[in-house]
Design goal:
alpha/beta, globular, oxidoreductase, NAD(P)H_dehydrogenase_qn, 6-stranded parallel beta sheet, Flavodoxin_fold, disordered N terminus, single chain, Rossmann fold
């Protein structure tokens, strides 16, 4: 499929910032505006405005709290029976509708805020986010396959630190490595193509000029949401991994860490 010809995409924008007047809040507003102006449909899940509950518990699955909770088994039973909490089921419908998912958040302690991590924990349940199998072969569908295959994922993050500190020799680690759990462990695991992230640095010190440049950069990135090249992750079933899910000898010589898993 020639993605450059796609028009009218459905975009789910997951926004996780407690202050609507922040740079992050402005980017969420401007991003939605840019997408709508380009003919796309947008649904925003503003987690703080929704007062999203980030904590997995027995109530999510209609589970008897007097019995021991096995989260994976309980979530699978509730998912198959259509008995998940209404808030979780609503997010599933949004994800099914979407062609692309934007995760937008401030980078706190080298990760997303707890409310967004809780959205991932509660929404990507067994049978939807993981534990998805091919009914014909019984093969597990993940890392390039899965319930969300064919969709695209983009991280938009505001960062207080300077850009150099997230570079190849930066003290915080390279941004690609910091975001690897989201790009590879969430997007790619569930089947979504992960796009290179958009990071806005120095967010805590942003002036009007910085904000204008951030909005312009966001608009450029969103213009390529359908056609930009995704991160070149290896697929689990593409022949690069053995039956123990270990990269085969001879591949990625001279590389280590997350970079091993790029083609």
């Amino acid at each position: 499929m020639d993605r450059s010809r796609l028009v009218g995409m459905n975009v789910l924008w997951i926004h996780a910032h407690p202050e609507p007047r922040s740079l992050g809040g402005m980017l969420a507003t401007e991003g939605r505006r840019a997408l709508v102006e380009s003919g796309h449909a947008v649904i925003v899940s503003d987690l703080y405005a929704m007062r999203w509950n980030p904590v997995v518990d027995a109530a999510d699955f209609g589970h008897d709290p007097a019995r021991r909770l096995h989260v994976g088994a309980a979530s699978r039973r509730a998912y198959d029976a259509g008995e998940l909490g209404a808030d979780i089921a609503a997010e599933h419908e949004k994800l099914r509708w979407a062609d692309a998912v934007v995760l937008q958040f401030p980078l706190w302690w080298l990760g997303p805020p707890a409310i967004l991590k809780g959205w991932l924990d509660r929404v990507l349940v067994h049978g939807f986010g993981f534990g998805v199998t091919d009914p014909a072969t019984g093969r597990v569908r993940r890392y390039g396959d899965g319930e969300l295959v064919g969709k695209r994922g983009l991280v938009v993050t505001t960062i207080g630190a300077r850009e150099s500190s997230f570079g190849p020799r930066g003290i915080h680690g390279h941004l690609d490595d910091v975001l690897f759990p989201l790009h590879h462990g969430v997007f790619w695991y569930t089947g979504m193509e992960a796009l290179p992230p958009l990071a806005v640095y120095g967010a805590d010190r942003a002036d009007e000029g910085t904000a204008d440049r951030a909005v312009a950069g966001l608009r450029r990135r969103l213009a390529g949401l359908a056609c930009d090249e995704p991160l070149p992750f290896r697929s689990e079933h593409g022949g690069d991994y053995d039956t123990d899910l270990v990269l085969r000898p001879g591949l990625a010589r001279g590389r280590s860490g997350p970079a091993l898993h790029y083609r």
